[in-house]
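User: Predict the structure for this protein chain, please.
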Amino acid sequence: MASTTPAAVSVAGLRKAYGSKEVLNGVDLAVPAGTVFALLGPNGAGKTTIVHILSTLIRADGGEVAVGGFDVGRQADEVRGKIGLTGQFSAVDGLLTGEENLALMGRLRHLQPAELKRRTAELLETFDLVAAAKQPLATYSGGMRRRLDLAMTLIGDPEIIFLDEPTTGLDPRSRRAMWEIIQGLVARGLTIFLTTQYLDEADQLADTIAVLDQGRIVAQGTPAELKRLVPGGHIRLTFGDLAALERAAVVLDPSNRDDDALTLDVAGDDGVRSLKDVLDRLERAAVDVADLSVHTPNLDDVFLALTSQKENAR
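Assistant: Here is the predicted structure, written as C-alpha cells:
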C-alpha cells in the first residue's frame, strides 16, 4: 500500500551540469514528512549538489523540485522559511561566543527580542551548551562546534533540516551524541535529509536510504530492503566435534568449512525459511549443533555492490 504521509521533499527528473560535466542526470526522490532520509554515494556522486539545489543555494538545470510544498525555483523565499541547513563545515563565527552566534543567527531570522532570548536559552539547554555559552569558540571541541552549528540551524524553527555530512571529523562519542540529537528532532516531527559517508550512521538513523552513483539513483528503500539486494547472507553452524561436522557437511551444502573452528557456513538468503530448512535437515540426520549465528549483508556490502569504484571528478 502506498504511503499516505505527505512528502516533505519531492524531486522528479532533476538534472544539473557544470559545463560539459553532467553531475545529476534524472534524479527522482520522495522524502515523507517526519522521517530521516539518507543519501549515500561515493565522493563526487552529486550528494552536496542535490542538497544545495533543495536548499535554494544553486539552481537546477531541469526537473521538478518541491520542498515543504513549495517549488524551489519559483518559490525560493517560501522554501527558505521552511528549512534549515547544516553544511559539511561548521559555519560558526570563531570570534563570537556560542550565545552570540545563536543571537546573530536569530537576528538574521528576524526573531523579535523576547522570542530570540527564549529560543537561545532553549537551544543552549537542548544541545548541552549552557556552561560554554559565554565562552569563545576557540575553547570549543569539534563536537561542541557541530552541536552549536545545528542549534543555529534550528533557531528559526524549521520543519525540514538538511544535514550534509554532519558528523565528519567527530570522534565516536560525539557522533553518537549527534545521532541522539537527530533522533530527538525526528521524534518532534521534523524531517531530516541526511548525506553521510558513514554507512553505519545511515543504518542507525534512516527510515529510507537512496544510493546515488554517477548522477543517478541506483537503489532506494529501507536499510533492510537494500541489504536484501545483495547476496551473501549465510548461517554459521558450530559443532561440538569433528565427527558432527563431517556428518553435517554431508547433508548440508556448505559454502565454507573450517575444521579448526568446527564451523560450516551455509547459504541463507531466505532468512527464517533457510534457517528452518537447515535445522530440519540436521535433525533428520541426528546431528547436534553446538551454536549458530545468522550473518546478513550490511550497507558496506550494498554500497560496494551498487556504486562504481572510481571516484568522480566533482
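Residues 310-314 have pLDDT under 50 and may be disordered.
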